[in-house]
From TrEMBL:
GO terms for molecular function: beta-1,4-mannosylglycoprotein 4-beta-N-acetylglucosaminyltransferase activity. Pfam families: Glyco_transf_17. The keyword Transmembrane applies. GO terms for biological process: N-acetylglucosamine metabolic process. This is Beta-1,4-mannosyl-glycoprotein 4-beta-N-acetylglucosaminyltransferase. The lineage of its organism: Eukaryota, Viridiplantae, Streptophyta, Embryophyta, Tracheophyta. Keywords: Membrane, Transmembrane, Transmembrane helix. One of its GO terms (cellular component) is membrane. The keyword DNA repair does not apply. It comes from Stephania cephalantha. The chain crosses the membrane at residues 44-63.
Length: 387
């Protein structure tokens, strides 16, 4: 019988039949890859070779910015504080000031303890203690020979202690050895040192209902705020302080949203030294937060490498002294980051350098009385010493 030849009507592409046909499919080789590439459109291939490396480069260089800009999508804003209006004038009696806040007046003021973890902020510590000196019963300071990131550091306060003779009779000082755990989360070492500060407070003699100021060295409550809280009765047991937020000096006012500083009516066995949100109540306009307010460029470099957010130093050129000086005078960000905000409106509103401010009104009194010595902190003086 005559057999009809088999005919397959399906179209075939024999460009690479020799390497991609049935006999070659079992083996994967460079020839097979070439086969696949030959089957691709040249323009699409060229586009792929350009887009993929470009995307990788953008993510590597600007991934952090992208993440911060998209923050409103994946993180909700924290609960709003309940702001207590802050009333003050030097010619108003303390009784009336307490009454304006809805508080009573005490027969005698509470004792006040100011406790800080110290790294290397000698100038800012001086301003802080001069501001608070009239109303603080005991200054408590703890320093370590280790940074939060596990780097060795000298005991800076101990070597400059002679500069603080004015507080010596009221000073409780302690030092603690670092654990030097490489690769550990910096916040673990920070928490370890804060626990040690709790112990130092007990050595200093703090007792029930004394006022305890919990804040970093550069978060400075105003003296009249502390005087108000020590004299007024029925104040909240934990009260956060809203501080004006400055960067590099009092020339660059970022906002008034610094909130981590707090004042506690001490409760033995319950009060723990911390630097996070512990209450929903905050007292408005209570002082100043001057972040990275250093005299020497070397101090900027040290802090960038030493503090708990040292991971923000993503590239070595961030530590270049000339770059740091330029960033300071522009009011830009040392880490080239976008604003840490929770809404697109706030992020866009804070894009770019901080506008210059030329007001030196309502700053710490000692700063203005010693303006020649601390000129670098005042408006119009952005140049820093190399150190």
């Amino acid at each position: 019988m005559y057999e009809v030849p088999y005919y397959n009507s399906k179209k075939t592409d024999d460009i690479c039949e020799d390497v991609c046909g049935p006999e070659a499919r079992a083996a994967f080789s460079m020839s097979r890859v070439c086969c696949i590439l030959k089957g691709m459109d040249f323009k699409a291939l060229l586009l792929l070779l350009i887009i993929v490396p470009t995307c990788i480069g953008v993510v590597y260089l600007h991934g952090q910015k992208i993440s911060y800009f998209l923050r409103p999508i994946w993180e909700s804003p924290p609960k709003l504080f309940h702001d207590i209006p802050h009333y003050y004038h030097e010619n108003v009696t303390m009784e009336n000031l307490c009454k304006l806040h809805g508080w009573g007046i005490r027969e005698i003021p509470r004792r006040v303890f100011d406790a800080v973890l110290f790294s290397n902020e000698i100038d800012i510590l001086t301003l802080r203690w001069k501001e608070l000196y009239p109303y603080v019963t005991q200054f408590v300071l703890l320093e370590s020979n280790s940074t939060f990131t596990g780097l060795p550091k000298p005991l800076v306060f101990a070597s400059h202690r002679d500069r603080f003779k004015f507080v010596e009779p009221r000073l409780t000082y302690g030092d603690i050895g670092g654990r030097f755990r490489k690769g550990e989360n910096p916040f673990v070492e920070e928490a370890f040192q804060r626990v040690a500060l709790d112990q130092l407070l007990r050595i200093a003699g703090i007792s029930e209902d004394d006022l305890l100021i919990m804040s970093d060295v550069d978060e400075i409550p105003s003296s009249h705020t502390i005087n108000l809280l020590r004299w007024c009765d029925n104040i909240p047991p934990i009260l956060h302080l809203r501080l004006k937020n400055y960067l590099y000096s009092f020339e660059f006012l970022l906002d008034d949203n610094s909130w981590r500083a707090s004042v506690h009516r001490y409760q033995p066995g319950k009060t723990r030294y911390a630097h996070f949100r512990q209450s929903d109540i905050i007292l408005s306009d209570s002082g100043w937060h001057c972040s990275f307010c250093f005299r020497y460029i070397s101090e900027f470099i040290f802090k960038m490498k030493a503090y708990s957010h040292s991971d923000r130093v993503r590239f070595s050129h961030y530590l270049n002294p000339k770059r740091i000086q330029d960033v300071i005078c522009k009011g830009a960000d040392l880490f080239d980051m976008l604003p840490e905000e929770y809404t697109f409106k706030d992020i866009i509103g804070k894009l770019g350098p901080i506008p210059h401010s030329y007001s030196a009104v309502h700053l710490p009194a000692y700063l203005l009385n010693s303006a020649d010595k601390y000129k670098f902190l005042l408006p119009g003086n952005c140049r820093r010493e190399s150190g």
